[in-house]
Amino acid sequence: MKLFLDTANLTEIRTMWETGILDGVTTNPTLVAQEGRVFEDVLKEICALGVPSVSAEVVATDKDGMLKEGRYLAALHPSIYVKCPMTPAGLGATKVLAAEGIRVNMTLVFSANQALLAAKVGATYVSPFIGRLDDHGEDGMALIRDIVLIYRNYRFPTQVLAASIRHPVHVLDAAKAGADIATLPYSVMEKLVHHPLTDIGLARFLKDWEKVPKPLRVPPSDR
Ligand code: E4P
């Protein structure tokens, strides 16, 4: 399962990139706005780190506008994946962009039927928003399970990217359900690494190590 970071913050991305666990980054207009920086500069800096998959979203709402923005974003760097929203225009734009070899991440997906359509137009990733569904009183993880089943039934190559993740149990359940990718806020990714028993265990090992007799460091001839 691939793990992406859901942020446009370079410090967070650099920190996780250093650990070796990061497979990609997803951004959206809200995350980019939080940084107060030029979108293209942020994208180029993320790509320059070597991150192999960086999702960048179009903000046009009509098909022609999405095509223009999608081609522009994809031309910035070979690691860019273009995010198109799940709308009639977004489906049409995805079909054209995919035929041109531009990889599309179809975003704002909230039903299995929407995911079926995303696969039919050739999206590389489909992004079901599980946290927002849970917030709405629905079962986000059931949607992941349905999409995985449908894609397996028809051997669609579209990868399921579990998005809008709120906590580590979402990551665990998405992995059990067979999601190809999960995109996580920095805070959730940090929680995957840590366990209190790891910290207690390490502190005990280091303390016990102090009791191990150490060899004399003075060479015998100088004694
Ligand atoms: C995914 O690509 C989206 O940007 C993201 O996961 C949305 O998450 P949110 O519901 O926490 O805003």
Give an account of the 3D structure.
By secondary structure, the chain is an alpha/beta fold. It has a single domain, classed as TIM Barrel, CATH 3.20.20. It contains eleven helices and eight strands. It has helices spanning 10-19, 29-35, 39-48, 63-76, 88-99, 112-120, 130-135, 140-154, 168-177, 186-193, 196-209, and strands at 2-6, 24-26, 54-57, 80-85, 104-109, 125-128, 159-162, 181-184. Strands 1-2-3-4-5-6-7-8 form an eight-stranded parallel β-barrel, surrounded by seven helices. Helix 1 (10-19) links the parallel strand 1 and strand 2. Helix 4 crosses helix 5 and helix 6 (112-120) runs parallel beside helix 8 (140-154). Erythose-4-phosphate binds at residues 6, 26, 28, 107, 127, 129, 131-132, 163-164, 183.
Structure summarized in a few sentences:
This protein has about 220 residues and is of the alpha/beta class. The chain has eleven helices and eight strands.
Topology:
Blueprint lengths: L1 E5 L3 H10 L4 E3 L2 H7 L3 H10 L5 E4 L5 H14 L3 E6 L2 H12 L4 E6 L2 H9 L4 E4 L1 H6 L4 H15 L4 E4 L5 H10 L3 E4 L1 H8 L2 H14 L14
Parallel strand pairs: 1-2, 1-8, 2-3, 3-4, 4-5, 5-6, 6-7, 7-8
The structure holds erythose-4-phosphate.
What portion of the residues fall into strands of 2 or more residues?
Answer: 15-25%
Name the shape in a single word: elongated
Number of domains: 1
Distance between the termini: 59 Å
CATH superfamily grouping: Aldolase class I
Radius of gyration: 22 Å
- List of distinct ligands in this structure: erythose-4-phosphate
SS class: alpha/beta
Please state the average pLDDT score.
Answer: 96
Q: Going across the biggest sheet, name each strand in turn.
A: 1-2-3-4-5-6-7-8
